[in-house]
Amino acid sequence: MRALVVDRSVPTGLRLAEIRDPEPAPHEALIRVAATSLNYGEVKYVLAGEPDGAVPGWDAAGVVERPAADGSGPAAGTPVVTVADGGAWAGLRAVDTALIGTVPAGADLGAVATVPVAGVSALRALHRIGALPGRRVLVTGATGGVGRYAVQLAHQGGAHVVAVTGDPETHEKNLRLLGADEVITAPRELGAPVDGVVELVGGTHLVDAYARLAEHGTLVTVGHAAQEDTTFPPGAFLGNEGRHNRTLTTFYLLACTDLAPDLTRLAEQVAAGTLDPGITWRGTWEEAAEAFDALRERRLHGKAVLDLV
C-alpha cells in the first residue's frame, strides 16, 4: 500500500512510499482509507517524536475492507470513520473496532474525516461541563478545528456561546453563523462570568478564563496553541467571593470509553449538514506538504483534509 512515512532525510520530513499492508489483530478491522484529516498537534509535535518509517495520523474515514476476526464492529463494505494513535496516513488502516463509527451511505468521507479528534474532543469537553441549556459557555481558539465544533455543539445544546478569536474582523460573521452569541478577542473581555470553558489556547487565555469561571463552573483544557507558560497569580484558586467549587480538568481522548457512538453521531450530523466541518484546505496526499506548512505556521483556520483515493 501507499503511505506517508516519516523520513527526516527529505525537507518535509515525510515522503510517499510503498510499504507492507498492516495485519489486523482479532479485535481490529482493516479499513480502506478514503480521506484523512490533519491536526495541528500531530503535524507540529507528533512528527518530531516519530522514528523514520513510521506512519502517523489520527483521523481517517473510509470503507471496511476486512471486518474484525472476533466478530465485533461493522461488516465489510461499511463506510466508517476511525481514530487511533497513528496509521491514518496510509491506504489501509487496522483499527480497534471500539474506535470505529459508522457513516451514512453516500456521505462525503473527506468531510466526515474531520470528526474524530476535533469533533469528539469538543463533544467530550462539553460533556464535562454538564447540562448546557441556558448556561454561558466560553470557547477559546474558536476558529480552529476543535473550537468550531465546540461552538456548534454548545449552541445545539442550548448554551449561550461566547467565542474567542484574535481576529474578529475576519471571523466574527462566520462564528455567529456557527452559533456564537458573542465574539470577543480575549477572555478578559467577558462582561459576566461563564459556567463552562472549552479552553484551547493555554497561557494567559487559560488563566483569564479560569478567573471568570462562575461558582460550580468547569474549565476543560483541551489544547495549548499559544505555546506559552501558564502562570496563575496568588489566590487564583481561592473559593470565596462566588468562586466556590470551580473545576479545572483535562482528558486524553484515546483513554475515553465508548468513542464509537460519538463518532457515529457526529458523522451523521456532518453528513446531514447540521454540523459544518469547516474544511479550509483540501487536496491529494501528493500535495500534503502545502497543508503541513500552513498548519505549522498557523495560517490555516479550520480543517485540512487529504483525499487518498
UniProtKB/TrEMBL annotation:
Pfam families: ADH_N (PF08240), ADH_zinc_N_2 (PF13602). It comes from the Bacteria. SMART domains: PKS_ER. Residues 9-306 form the Enoyl reductase (ER) domain. CDD domains: MDR4. This is NADPH:quinone reductase-like Zn-dependent oxidoreductase. It comes from Streptosporangium brasiliense.
